[in-house]
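User: What would this chain look like folded?
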Amino acid sequence: MKYWFRNDYSFGAHPKVLEAVCAANLEGNIGYGDDKYTDRAKDRIREVCGCPDAMVEFLAGGTQTNVVACAFLLKPWEAAICPHSGHLNGHEVGAFEATGHKILTVEADADGKIAPDQLVPLLELHKDPHLTKPGLVYISNATENGAVYTKAELTALSEFCHANGLYLFVDGARLGCALASDANDMTLPEFAALCDAFYIGGTKNGAMFGEALVITRPELTDGFFRMKKRLGAVMEKGWIQGAQFLALFEDDLYFKMGRQANQMAARLQAGLKAKGWRLWVESPTNQVFVIAPNDKKPVLDEVCQYEDWCPYDETHTVVRFVCCFHTGEADVDGLLAALPNLD
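Assistant: Here's the prediction, encoded as structure tokens.
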């Protein structure tokens, strides 16, 4: 038997999400998002975000959302500032750059977060009119390495961006786990108030697929649907996304799933440390990063699905385990029991 810890989208969807889609399956709905489920889901998201005037649009996946949103917000000569480990830069095959925009990378710490002081030299350099002009800052919450921005950190970044004519865009592929984390000290409305645009990730938190993009400033939204259509991101059966997100935000389900994933990851981290396995970083969310001896990797291959993250040294590799809404104590304890103790 293999335990599934490769990512947080190995399983289809939470049963309540599937039930919501099935309930609407054969009733007939208008396409392209002009349906009652999409309208209600958008209203519900504005409500939970505390942003009554925000634009909400649904897209299929994280890369698509990042590309469409960032390209829409920027003028043709503007660039996005991104941590070197950010998904926009490190895991999207130049999709954003294919729209004609440049990515300006900033070195992030092992946690994947960046701070305002790191951006100052970049902005100074790009005062040169022969260079691209930074137009937005892209970050992820939770980061690609599992860290969470605190309210103070995000406030400082937001204030810096606005003082320097930059938009702040937050990749929320794992926003559910970020806001449900013990390391988080923000409510969703507090978080939303600090962002110009962000998205609520469904694909990695219990939906079949789908992300809800929120642009909090109405003056930035004119023409977005046309941009979405131009980049091939409008779904004909848009009501499926609406039905899913209505279910996700009923009875706190979205955050319950995030807490479940985080709790199982914490259980796994604690168990690995008790068995002598070293952590690469301490993650407060649903991703677990372990420094695995290369000679023990055949054991991992036999008992579970996981992902090689990066080399550590000649004899060790950083591997990643990810928990999700479907991960239970039996999965965690079973994996731990199958792994050897390391002295």
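The mean pLDDT is 97. If you want, I can go into more detail on any region.
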